Amino acid sequence: MEYRHLGASGFKVPVLSFGTGTFGGKGDFFQAWGETDVSEARKLVDICLEAGVTMFDTADVYSHGTSESILGEALKGRRDKVIVSTKATFRFDPDDPNAVGSSRFHLVRTVNQALERLQTDYIDVFQLHGFDAKTPVEETLSTLDDLVRAGKIRYTGVSNFSGWQLQKSLDVANRYGYPRHVANQTYYSLIGRDYEWELMPLGLDQGVGAVVWSPLGWGRLTGKIRRGAPLPETSRLHKTADMGPPVPEEYLYRVVDALDAIAEETGKTVPQIALNWLLQRPTVATVLIGARNEAQLRQNLGAVGWNLTPEQVKRLDEASAVRPAYPYWHQQGFAERNPFPV
């Protein structure tokens, strides 16, 4: 397994990490993702560690804390062999006015609760799950600084931030000497390339590594969706399609057609090719793979140990290209001054 530096930090992470959104299955949304219990989670962790996948990502809102609890149980006796990543910001308790956001009150409490559920003394990578516009950035970052100094967090990051929100956070960290975010857990895939418009150049400029979530385009690049064929009965898209990013059908089929052609050339599966494409993109430190069972996990692990050719990458780039929003389409016309990140 290849390891890469997480942003500009000295910390290395495996290029594939395991996302535990399928652990627990509490509530309609997460039940559609999966209902992995402790026993099955241990098996999946075993397979990951055998393959060199040592980073495991979760969040407090995944099945209302159950994902963190199951992961903690599954990692018993091998905490020192793994990297644990978790997130918080979104509402955790509908009846508590302070159980949401990135305030000092909420972050201190949620980190302590996460440590208890994960059965650990520290979190390797802690990410703000979303931007909190109602809490001063200085309050949030000073709290994270306290938690780092207390040894409860080692590295910090963000998720689902816009470019200006991340840059403002980095500027405040520079001004006061707080820990700089080194990770940006971001949605990025062959059918969701918005990350490239602003966040990727920012990541290169500021030393923030991408931790990619939903690399198969919200379950659309599993290899089971084909032009002219009905959505498979087993697809979670029946329940979750409206909750995720919209993708025009013809655009999806164009990308899948290109993936199918390259799959025939390489002998690899559609998901393996989609994941391998991501691993060749600038700023990407690690790609989160999820799995509801061992077969899915083993297939995703086949995305490493080989590389698409430059010509194959170019074909996928062209098939998945879209006209970006302003001012990015305008900047593309002046590549001499605004080149694409390499």
In short:
InterPro entries: AKR, AKR_Detox_Biosynth, NAD(P)_OxRdtase_dom_sf, NADP_OxRdtase_dom. The chain is α/β, with parallel strands linked by helices and 342 residues long.
Task: Report on this structure.
It comes from Caballeronia cordobensis (Burkholderia cordobensis). GO terms for molecular function: oxidoreductase activity. There is one protein chain. The protein is of the alpha/beta class and 342 residues long. The chain has 13 helices and ten strands. The chain has one domain: NADP-dependent oxidoreductase domain (TIM Barrel), CATH 3.20.20. The chain has an eight-stranded parallel β-barrel, surrounded by five helices. Strands 1-2 form a two-stranded antiparallel ribbon. Helix 2 (38-51) packs across helix 3 (66-74).
